[in-house]
Write a structure and sequence with these properties.
The chain has helices at about 40-50, 70-80, 100-110, 140-150, 180-190, 205-210, 220-230, 255-270, 285-290, 295-320, 325-345, 355-365, 365-380, 400-405, 410-420, 440-450, and strands spanning about 5, 10, 20, 25-35, 60-65, 85, 130-135, 135-140, 155-160, 165, 200-205, 235-240, 245. With about 450 residues, it is of the alpha/beta class.
Length: about 450
């Protein structure tokens, strides 16, 4: 976060401008700490955040927001001196829905900006806050890039995409990399004035955040809700399409399903409430549609997947055909299907085709997860089930990765080893900087373990 009350001295007119900041008093980075994050992960994230370059004159302070009251993490932050501070010990409200938002709000409202309670308009426009998840390590130029985007005081939020070190593009069947979203959907939405927030790797103008009531606590997807609140209040956002931080994605099926279920429930909590974008009078029509796009995506995925499964089954088993095959149908299908495929799978680079395909694959795999989440949300709305609360995603991959891999079966791992050895790239071709995949190494380790076993 910046505290800045003076103006900029100037901007160079070179193709890549260098901004000169005058009297930047304070920079704060907030890390939302999940309870299960290890000290090693926290150390890596904090070290990267403090090593990130900042413009001359900026004084940086890092706040670690810990809901776990971990003495080891407190000692680590204390060892960093005045550069970092440890915040914990908040009081949890009964029936709390989003502990992550409450954790951040506790640090912002009760620690940093306590004197501005009820006076959002008095917070200086140059007060900025950068938020990272506990496992997201910033690159050295993260702050320079983001601050350049936030130089315009009319911009209230700047978002950057997410990259993951433990996911390989060729094995990303759950679409963690989400290339379709980061590279195609968000740039288009940004051009239409959409404000996007995805929970980490973003910068906020504190005055705007305070004006909309800080981070929303009424839903488990506070990022989606915050972006809509900012847009409804008339603020402006920016999407910086550069991979400037690298973290970890859940790599166990159970944790992936929990994460996607939470996303689905959060969208449904808002859609089936008085805060639904479709009835939000402060949003123009185009943004009513854009802010329900994610919700429609879940509904459409559920519907189309079930139809694509059951229609061929009914046709083959029961002889019931939903269409009558004729010359006219053949012509219509020949025209429609290729055009639809080209539109739905448009890519700027041939290397992106796999990412588009993975998005489709993951939707089919996770259809039941989406359907269950929608059903449970509806039950909670009518009072049959308890309202869903926020649960941080476990990204540890289990206590013993090799044992987990062995449970998948020797044949599966051997197949993956043959498929991935020798011809897979070690990083994203689009420059996201994702580290080499662990799959081949894990398979090789497993093979070595098996070869070392005595013959029966």
């Amino acid at each position: 976060m910046f505290r800045h009350h003076a103006s900029f001295k100037g901007v160079s007119h070179r193709p890549h401008p260098v901004l000169f900041f005058a009297d930047m008093l304070l920079l704060v980075l907030l890390l939302r700490l999940a309870l299960q994050e290890s000290l090693e992960v926290i150390t890596n994230t904090v070290t990267a955040a403090l090593a990130a370059e900042v413009p001359p004159g900026v004084t940086r302070t890092l706040y670690l927001c810990d809901d776990g009251k971990d003495p080891a993490k407190a000692d680590f932050i204390a060892s960093l001196g005045d550069e970092a501070r440890y915040v914990t010990g908040r009081t949890r409200a009964p029936g709390e829905i989003n502990g992550k938002s409450a954790n951040l709000n506790n640090c912002l409202r009760n620690v940093i900006f306590r004197e501005f309670e009820g006076r959002a308009q008095d917070i200086p426009a140059r007060e900025l806050v950068v938020v990272f998840d506990a496992d997201m390590a910033a690159r050295r130029h993260f702050l320079l890039k983001v601050l350049e985007a936030m130089w315009d005081e009319s911009v209230s939020l700047c978002l950057t995409p997410q990259a993951f070190s433990n996911i390989h593009p060729h094995a990303d069947i759950f679409n963690n990399i989400n290339q379709q979203f980061w590279q195609y959907v968000l740039p288009g939405c940004d051009a239409l004035g959409y404000i996007a927030c995805t929970g980490t790797n973003f910068c906020l103008r504190v005055r705007s955040l305070a004006a909309v009531g800080w981070f929303p606590e009424y839903t488990i997807t506070e990022d989606y809700a915050l972006s809509m609140e900012l847009k409804s209040a008339g603020f402006k956002g920016s999407y910086l399409n550069e991979y400037l931080a690298v973290g970890e994605a859940p790599d166990e099926i159970r944790n992936v399903c929990r994460q996607r279920s939470r996303w689905t429930k959060g969208h449904m909590q808002i859609f089936f409430s008085s805060r639904c974008p479709l009835i939000n009078g402060k949003l123009p029509l185009i943004h009513k549609i854009l802010y329900t796009n994610g919700t429609w995506a879940y509904f459409c995925t559920i519907l189309t997947t079930l139809v694509f499964l059951f229609v061929p089954f009914n046709s083959l088993v029961f002889g019931y055909h939903p269409v009558s095959f004729s010359y006219e149908f053949a012509v219509a299908a020949t025209v429609y299907l290729p055009l639809n495929f080209a539109l739905m799978n448009y890519v700027r680079s041939p290397s992106h085709v796999r990412g588009q395909w993975m998005a489709s694959v993951s939707n089919h795999i996770l259809t039941f997860t989406y359907m269950k989440a929608v059903f449970n949300t509806l039950l909670s709305i009518v009072g049959v089930k308890k309202k869903a609360g926020f649960k941080a995603t476990d990204k540890s991959g289990g206590a013993n990765p090799i044992s987990a891999i062995k449970n998948l079966g020797t044949n599966l791992m051997n197949s993956m080893n043959r498929a991935n050895s020798g011809n897979l790239p070690t990083a994203h071709s689009d420059g996201s900087g994702v580290a080499p995949s662990p799959l081949s190494a894990a398979a090789a380790a497993l093979t070595g373990m098996q070869q070392g076993l005595p013959a029966k």
